[in-house]
Amino acid sequence: MQRTLAYWFVASTGRKSPTSPWLAIAAGLTALFVAIPLVYIFFRAAGAEPAAWQRLLQARLWQLLGNTLLLVVAVTCGALVTGVSMAWLTERTDLPGRNVLRAMLALPLAIPAYIGGIVHLALLRPRGGLILLALEEIIGRPVATPSPLGFWGAAFILTLFTYPYVYLLSGAAFRSLHASLEEAARSLGRTPWQTFWQVTLPALRPGLMAGALLVALDILAEYGTVALLRYETFSSAIFVQLAGRYDRSAASVLSAVLVILAILILWAELRVQGQRRFTQIESNWRPAIRITLGKWRWSAFLLVASVVSASLLVPLGVLIGWSLQAFADPQTLEAVFRAGSRGFGSFVWNSLWTSLLAALLATALSLPVALLSVRYPSRISRFIARFCQVGYALPGVVIALSLVLLINRTLPFLYATPLVVVLAYVLRHMPQAVRSSESALNQLSPSLEEAARTLGRTPLQTLFQVTLPLILPGLLAGAALVFLTSLKELPATLLLRPPGFDTLAVRVWVWAGEGFYVQAAPAALILVLAAALPLSFLLRQEQIFSDSSIS
């Protein structure tokens, strides 16, 4: 065992030793595990009856495709505009309170979009909305306000809770941008506006493309918000076919089309990004001079404050208000804590242990893939690493469908157990763990491992005493991200959970679907607070990395 592990490290002569077959096998098995849902969905779709394909092509497929693409484009553009503008105002200007606003703009990532949709729907729904009732009482007559239902409502809500992807990446790019780039453009006669479009934005392109990709794939996978706001997309249609009509052939066909659409988005991102690289000269680095907003200072503050209010303060304020109302009413409180077969504590426990186990498994499975791709780069290792990130193209409802069909036939003893839910989390969020592990290993010089080997450490001792301790912060960041996203996962949990097994996300969805918003509020608030903990850790890690890279 130790002899094979020795192949993992680079010899002190500077030549790479042969790749360990055990490492290659472990990475290959991980890729095979990730590929199972993708292969099985296409297999079932190809085996569907021609009548199922014809029925969907004639009736619904093109409408679903148009609805889904329209929402993806609208939310991605909205997230780009919102994220970049918020990052520019907090990082590059003298905006009042920018240090506090910088953190508050990132916190909406802890709020699932469907919870934000529940809050805004309760406030703005056409009949009985809290804001509408308050305005009618003040004015004395009915007031017409925009409806949160349909395309525009879904686009607005999803933009509010996905823009932090773009905001965090573009904010980090703004902080690390060399001042001399913009100064050179200005010295060549470019106006500030021309400098922003011709110099600053191209420098931000890698982060913007990554953020836009995350937003687009997140919208493809979104179920709760679009179902709540009555806007039909592929994900909601697949859920209805599987959970409502029990038509697995139609669900498989729709899933195959949705996966192809996601793969095309991934391919387009790779084509647009291509081999472009942006490198700054790091010697004598200095930050760009902050822009003075002058008379626009407080207008800009109101703009940022409105985004923070709509995406963070209003949802949290409403959830806290409803929770206090629930605790003040003994009947509602009893309904909250006596719901289900085991009570409220079981919802919290189920959410925590499934998400934590998924985070640990995803991180452990990502290690051989990262070691192979970083320490032994080749076409095969790069292919395995990319393939293990196919989860980005597999929405939760598609993974749930594949596991339902596959486990029911091949592993029936796992069917209707919580372990299936954990497997779905791992498959869905494996890419986050792989990228975090690769990033951590890329920052670790192989010379440190070589030094341990020359001092007499065995390969196994070097792995556990040198490599893992040094990359532990990166591994924890990946695990925290998997934990965060698993906590919020809704469609896979709804479809795969065994009877009587509810998580916080499921219980919030069930109560809100029945119109019991006050009853759902404590579970939603605990879910948001639980998600805020790993998010705060990720933000601290990002700030530490940003500061170290700048210095």
Description:
With 551 residues, the chain is mainly alpha-helical. The protein is 76% helix and 0% strand.
Topology:
Blueprint: H1 2-5, H2 21-46, H3 50-59, H4 61-92, H5 98-104, H6 113-124, H7 130-139, H8 150-176, H9 179-187, H10 192-221, H11 224-228, H12 234-244, H13 248-273, H14 297-328, H15 330-337, H16 344-375, H17 379-387, H18 396-410, H19 418-442, H20 446-454, H21 459-488, H22 491-496, H23 504-513, H24 517-550
**Beta-strand residue fraction:** under 5%
Write down how many β-strands occur, each being a DSSP E stretch of 2 or more residues. 0
Instruction: Fill in the CATH topology of the domain at 17-35 and 329-551.
Output: MetI-like fold
| Tally of contiguous helical segments | 24
Instruction: Tell me the quaternary state.
Output: single chain
- Overall 3D shape: globular
What is the annotated CATH architecture of the domain at 17-35 and 329-551? Orthogonal Bundle
* Uncertain runs: 1-15
Taking Cα atoms only, what radius of gyration do you get, to the nearest Å? 25 Å
Whole-number mean pLDDT = 77
Run of helices and strands: HHHHHHHHHHHHHHHHHHHHHHHH
Estimated structural class: mainly alpha
**CATH top level assignment of the domain at 17-35 and 329-551:** Mainly Alpha
